[in-house]
Predict the 3D structure of the following.
Amino acid sequence: MAGLNIVPTGGGVGAEVRGVDLRAIDDAGFAAIERAWIAHQVLLFRGQALSDDDLIGFSACFGGLDWAPVQETGRRFVEGRPELYIVSNVMVNGEPIGSLGAGEAVWHTDMSYLPEPPKASLLYALEIPPSGGDTSFVNMYTAYETLPDDLKARARGLKVKHDGTYNSGGFLRQGVVPTDDPRQSPGHLHPMVCTHPESGRRMLYLGRRRNAYVDGLDLAESEALLDAIWAHVCQPRFCWTNQWQVGDLVLWDNRCTMHRRDPFDNSARRVMHRTQVKGAAPPAA
Ligand code: OGA
Ligand code: MN
Protein backbone atom coordinates (compact mmCIF):
# COMPACT_ATOMS: atom_id res chain seq x y z
CA MET A 1 0.00 0.00 0.00
CA ALA A 2 1.44 3.36 -1.00
CA GLY A 3 2.80 5.46 1.84
CA LEU A 4 2.88 2.78 4.53
CA ASN A 5 5.94 3.46 6.62
CA ILE A 6 7.14 1.18 9.45
CA VAL A 7 9.34 2.84 12.07
CA PRO A 8 10.72 0.66 14.90
CA THR A 9 10.15 2.21 18.34
CA GLY A 10 13.83 2.00 19.27
CA GLY A 11 12.78 0.14 22.44
CA GLY A 12 12.82 -3.59 23.15
CA VAL A 13 9.73 -4.27 21.04
CA GLY A 14 7.28 -2.64 18.64
CA ALA A 15 7.04 -0.31 15.67
CA GLU A 16 4.90 2.63 14.62
CA VAL A 17 3.06 2.36 11.33
CA ARG A 18 2.64 5.73 9.66
CA GLY A 19 0.62 6.82 6.68
CA VAL A 20 -2.33 4.50 7.10
CA ASP A 21 -6.04 5.05 7.72
CA LEU A 22 -7.31 1.78 9.20
CA ARG A 23 -10.80 2.48 7.88
CA ALA A 24 -9.56 2.11 4.33
CA ILE A 25 -6.94 -0.58 3.86
CA ASP A 26 -6.76 -2.85 0.83
CA ASP A 27 -5.53 -6.46 0.68
CA ALA A 28 -1.93 -5.49 -0.01
CA GLY A 29 -2.01 -2.98 2.84
CA PHE A 30 -3.37 -5.56 5.23
CA ALA A 31 -0.73 -8.10 4.16
CA ALA A 32 2.01 -5.53 4.87
CA ILE A 33 0.51 -4.75 8.29
CA GLU A 34 0.28 -8.43 9.17
CA ARG A 35 3.93 -9.00 8.18
CA ALA A 36 5.03 -6.00 10.26
CA TRP A 37 2.97 -7.26 13.21
CA ILE A 38 4.66 -10.69 13.14
CA ALA A 39 8.08 -9.03 12.83
CA HIS A 40 7.65 -6.29 15.47
CA GLN A 41 5.04 -7.94 17.78
CA VAL A 42 3.40 -4.61 18.72
CA LEU A 43 2.23 -1.97 16.22
CA LEU A 44 1.15 1.59 17.02
CA PHE A 45 -1.10 3.48 14.59
CA ARG A 46 -1.55 7.13 15.58
CA GLY A 47 -4.23 9.59 14.54
CA GLN A 48 -7.02 7.08 13.82
CA ALA A 49 -10.73 7.93 13.91
CA LEU A 50 -12.42 4.59 14.49
CA SER A 51 -16.03 3.84 15.34
CA ASP A 52 -16.69 0.56 17.16
CA ASP A 53 -17.66 -0.95 13.80
CA ASP A 54 -14.37 0.23 12.27
CA LEU A 55 -12.41 -1.27 15.17
CA ILE A 56 -14.29 -4.56 14.87
CA GLY A 57 -13.94 -4.51 11.08
CA PHE A 58 -10.17 -4.02 11.09
CA SER A 59 -9.73 -6.57 13.91
CA ALA A 60 -11.73 -9.18 11.95
CA CYS A 61 -9.17 -9.00 9.11
CA PHE A 62 -6.93 -11.05 11.43
CA GLY A 63 -9.56 -13.75 12.01
CA GLY A 64 -12.64 -14.47 14.10
CA LEU A 65 -13.02 -12.40 17.26
CA ASP A 66 -13.29 -13.79 20.76
CA TRP A 67 -15.98 -12.59 23.09
CA ALA A 68 -14.52 -10.29 25.72
CA PRO A 69 -14.46 -11.36 29.37
CA VAL A 70 -17.51 -9.99 31.19
CA GLN A 71 -17.06 -6.91 33.31
CA GLU A 72 -16.12 -7.18 36.99
CA THR A 73 -19.77 -6.34 37.74
CA GLY A 74 -20.90 -9.34 35.67
CA ARG A 75 -22.32 -7.18 32.88
CA ARG A 76 -21.38 -7.21 29.22
CA PHE A 77 -19.73 -3.95 28.30
CA VAL A 78 -21.88 -3.12 25.29
CA GLU A 79 -25.18 -4.92 24.72
CA GLY A 80 -25.14 -6.66 21.35
CA ARG A 81 -21.35 -6.26 20.95
CA PRO A 82 -19.89 -9.19 22.91
CA GLU A 83 -16.54 -8.80 21.16
CA LEU A 84 -15.95 -5.35 22.70
CA TYR A 85 -14.01 -4.99 25.95
CA ILE A 86 -13.94 -1.56 27.57
CA VAL A 87 -11.02 -0.50 29.73
CA SER A 88 -12.14 2.50 31.76
CA ASN A 89 -12.39 4.06 35.19
CA VAL A 90 -15.41 6.18 34.19
CA MET A 91 -18.52 5.66 36.33
CA VAL A 92 -22.08 6.05 35.06
CA ASN A 93 -24.92 5.77 37.58
CA GLY A 94 -22.48 4.47 40.18
CA GLU A 95 -21.16 1.66 37.98
CA PRO A 96 -17.92 1.53 36.00
CA ILE A 97 -18.45 1.41 32.24
CA GLY A 98 -15.30 -0.69 31.86
CA SER A 99 -12.68 -2.77 33.64
CA LEU A 100 -9.33 -2.28 35.40
CA GLY A 101 -10.12 0.95 37.29
CA ALA A 102 -7.36 3.55 37.64
CA GLY A 103 -4.75 1.52 39.49
CA GLU A 104 -1.79 -0.33 38.11
CA ALA A 105 -2.53 -3.22 35.76
CA VAL A 106 0.27 -5.71 36.35
CA TRP A 107 2.21 -7.57 33.64
CA HIS A 108 0.00 -10.07 31.83
CA THR A 109 -1.12 -11.64 28.59
CA ASP A 110 -4.81 -11.37 27.79
CA MET A 111 -7.10 -14.32 28.60
CA SER A 112 -4.37 -16.94 28.81
CA TYR A 113 -6.38 -18.72 31.52
CA LEU A 114 -8.24 -20.19 28.53
CA PRO A 115 -6.99 -23.27 26.63
CA GLU A 116 -6.98 -21.21 23.40
CA PRO A 117 -6.05 -17.62 24.24
CA PRO A 118 -6.50 -14.82 21.70
CA LYS A 119 -3.57 -14.35 19.31
CA ALA A 120 -3.99 -10.60 19.09
CA SER A 121 -5.52 -7.72 21.02
CA LEU A 122 -6.34 -4.30 19.57
CA LEU A 123 -6.71 -1.39 21.99
CA TYR A 124 -8.06 1.95 20.81
CA ALA A 125 -7.77 5.18 22.83
CA LEU A 126 -10.90 7.34 23.01
CA GLU A 127 -10.15 9.42 26.15
CA ILE A 128 -6.77 9.76 27.85
CA PRO A 129 -5.82 11.30 31.23
CA PRO A 130 -3.39 14.24 31.15
CA SER A 131 -0.69 12.05 32.72
CA GLY A 132 -0.22 8.44 33.80
CA GLY A 133 -1.95 5.39 32.34
CA ASP A 134 0.96 4.60 30.00
CA THR A 135 1.07 1.02 28.71
CA SER A 136 4.30 -0.98 28.49
CA PHE A 137 5.01 -4.06 26.40
CA VAL A 138 7.72 -6.69 26.89
CA ASN A 139 9.32 -8.88 24.22
CA MET A 140 9.02 -12.53 25.23
CA TYR A 141 11.34 -13.74 22.45
CA THR A 142 14.29 -11.76 23.75
CA ALA A 143 13.28 -12.52 27.34
CA TYR A 144 13.66 -16.21 26.46
CA GLU A 145 16.78 -15.87 24.32
CA THR A 146 18.67 -13.98 27.03
CA LEU A 147 17.76 -16.31 29.92
CA PRO A 148 20.80 -17.80 31.63
CA ASP A 149 21.43 -21.31 30.24
CA ASP A 150 20.42 -23.12 33.43
CA LEU A 151 17.05 -21.33 33.60
CA LYS A 152 16.47 -21.85 29.87
CA ALA A 153 17.08 -25.57 30.22
CA ARG A 154 14.82 -25.82 33.27
CA ALA A 155 12.02 -23.83 31.68
CA ARG A 156 11.70 -26.09 28.66
CA GLY A 157 9.50 -29.07 29.41
CA LEU A 158 7.63 -27.33 32.24
CA LYS A 159 4.02 -26.24 32.27
CA VAL A 160 2.64 -23.18 34.07
CA LYS A 161 -0.82 -22.52 35.44
CA HIS A 162 -2.25 -19.29 34.03
CA ASP A 163 -4.59 -18.02 36.72
CA GLY A 164 -8.20 -17.16 36.00
CA THR A 165 -9.06 -15.80 39.45
CA TYR A 166 -7.97 -12.19 39.16
CA ASN A 167 -7.68 -9.79 36.27
CA SER A 168 -4.61 -7.61 35.82
CA GLY A 169 -6.16 -4.80 37.86
CA GLY A 170 -6.38 -7.18 40.83
CA PHE A 171 -10.17 -7.49 40.57
CA LEU A 172 -11.87 -10.85 41.08
CA ARG A 173 -13.32 -12.26 37.88
CA GLN A 174 -17.06 -12.76 37.78
CA GLY A 175 -18.31 -16.06 39.17
CA VAL A 176 -14.94 -17.18 40.55
CA VAL A 177 -14.38 -18.28 44.17
CA PRO A 178 -11.34 -16.33 45.37
CA THR A 179 -8.26 -18.27 46.36
CA ASP A 180 -4.63 -17.35 46.69
CA ASP A 181 -3.40 -20.93 46.54
CA PRO A 182 -1.95 -21.26 43.04
CA ARG A 183 -2.40 -25.03 43.14
CA GLN A 184 -6.16 -24.69 43.66
CA SER A 185 -7.02 -21.63 41.61
CA PRO A 186 -8.88 -21.99 38.31
CA GLY A 187 -6.83 -21.53 35.17
CA HIS A 188 -5.11 -23.44 32.42
CA LEU A 189 -1.69 -25.09 32.08
CA HIS A 190 0.41 -23.96 29.12
CA PRO A 191 4.00 -24.88 28.23
CA MET A 192 6.44 -22.37 29.75
CA VAL A 193 8.45 -22.22 26.53
CA CYS A 194 6.45 -22.19 23.32
CA THR A 195 7.14 -21.95 19.62
CA HIS A 196 5.34 -19.10 17.89
CA PRO A 197 3.22 -20.74 15.18
CA GLU A 198 3.91 -18.01 12.62
CA SER A 199 7.46 -16.79 13.26
CA GLY A 200 8.78 -20.20 14.37
CA ARG A 201 10.70 -18.46 17.18
CA ARG A 202 10.84 -19.67 20.77
CA MET A 203 9.31 -17.52 23.49
CA LEU A 204 8.59 -17.59 27.19
CA TYR A 205 4.87 -17.90 27.85
CA LEU A 206 4.03 -16.84 31.39
CA GLY A 207 0.59 -15.21 31.42
CA ARG A 208 0.74 -13.44 34.77
CA ARG A 209 2.62 -13.83 38.04
CA ARG A 210 -0.23 -13.89 40.56
CA ASN A 211 -1.38 -17.44 41.31
CA ALA A 212 1.00 -18.83 38.70
CA TYR A 213 2.15 -22.35 39.46
CA VAL A 214 4.68 -24.64 37.84
CA ASP A 215 2.91 -27.94 37.44
CA GLY A 216 4.35 -30.81 39.46
CA LEU A 217 6.69 -28.77 41.68
CA ASP A 218 6.45 -28.10 45.41
CA LEU A 219 4.81 -24.75 45.93
CA ALA A 220 8.02 -23.24 47.36
CA GLU A 221 10.08 -24.57 44.45
CA SER A 222 7.54 -23.26 41.96
CA GLU A 223 7.55 -19.81 43.59
CA ALA A 224 11.35 -19.65 43.58
CA LEU A 225 11.63 -20.66 39.92
CA LEU A 226 8.90 -18.24 38.84
CA ASP A 227 10.48 -15.41 40.84
CA ALA A 228 13.84 -16.03 39.15
CA ILE A 229 12.32 -16.09 35.67
CA TRP A 230 10.10 -13.03 36.26
CA ALA A 231 13.06 -11.06 37.64
CA HIS A 232 14.80 -11.64 34.32
CA VAL A 233 11.79 -10.93 32.08
CA CYS A 234 10.78 -7.50 33.37
CA GLN A 235 13.97 -5.65 32.41
CA PRO A 236 13.57 -2.26 30.72
CA ARG A 237 15.81 -3.34 27.82
CA PHE A 238 13.11 -5.79 26.65
CA CYS A 239 10.31 -3.21 26.92
CA TRP A 240 8.70 -0.29 25.15
CA THR A 241 6.11 2.08 26.63
CA ASN A 242 3.32 3.87 24.79
CA GLN A 243 2.32 7.28 26.06
CA TRP A 244 -1.19 7.34 24.71
CA GLN A 245 -2.74 9.96 22.51
CA VAL A 246 -6.42 10.02 21.58
CA GLY A 247 -6.74 8.15 18.28
CA ASP A 248 -3.95 5.63 19.01
CA LEU A 249 -4.64 2.05 18.04
CA VAL A 250 -2.18 -0.46 19.45
CA LEU A 251 -2.20 -3.99 18.08
CA TRP A 252 -0.18 -6.58 19.98
CA ASP A 253 0.75 -10.19 19.45
CA ASN A 254 -0.71 -11.67 22.60
CA ARG A 255 1.47 -14.80 22.31
CA CYS A 256 4.97 -13.31 22.33
CA THR A 257 4.45 -10.15 24.43
CA MET A 258 3.06 -9.18 27.81
CA HIS A 259 1.80 -5.75 28.84
CA ARG A 260 1.16 -3.64 31.93
CA ARG A 261 -0.38 -0.24 32.64
CA ASP A 262 0.70 2.54 34.98
CA PRO A 263 -1.85 3.91 37.44
CA PHE A 264 -3.39 7.34 36.87
CA ASP A 265 -5.46 9.93 38.74
CA ASN A 266 -8.94 8.49 39.19
CA SER A 267 -10.52 11.93 38.85
CA ALA A 268 -9.37 11.96 35.19
CA ARG A 269 -11.18 9.98 32.50
CA ARG A 270 -9.61 7.14 30.52
CA VAL A 271 -11.70 5.24 27.96
CA MET A 272 -10.29 2.54 25.68
CA HIS A 273 -12.11 -0.01 23.51
CA ARG A 274 -10.53 -3.40 22.85
CA THR A 275 -11.10 -6.42 20.64
CA GLN A 276 -9.34 -9.78 20.74
CA VAL A 277 -8.70 -12.16 17.84
CA LYS A 278 -9.17 -15.90 18.33
CA GLY A 279 -5.99 -17.96 18.67
CA ALA A 280 -4.92 -21.56 19.14
CA ALA A 281 -3.27 -23.37 22.06
CA PRO A 282 0.36 -22.19 22.15
CA PRO A 283 2.54 -25.17 21.11
CA ALA A 284 5.43 -26.34 23.31
CA ALA A 285 8.92 -25.58 21.98
C1 OGA B 1 -5.97 -4.59 27.90
C2 OGA B 1 -5.11 -3.97 28.91
C3 OGA B 1 -4.18 -1.87 29.60
C4 OGA B 1 -4.41 -0.45 29.30
O1 OGA B 1 -6.77 -3.88 27.27
O2 OGA B 1 -5.85 -5.80 27.68
O3 OGA B 1 -4.43 -4.63 29.62
O4 OGA B 1 -3.45 0.28 29.14
N1 OGA B 1 -5.12 -2.64 28.92
O5 OGA B 1 -5.57 -0.04 29.22
MN1 MN C 1 -4.54 -6.75 28.95
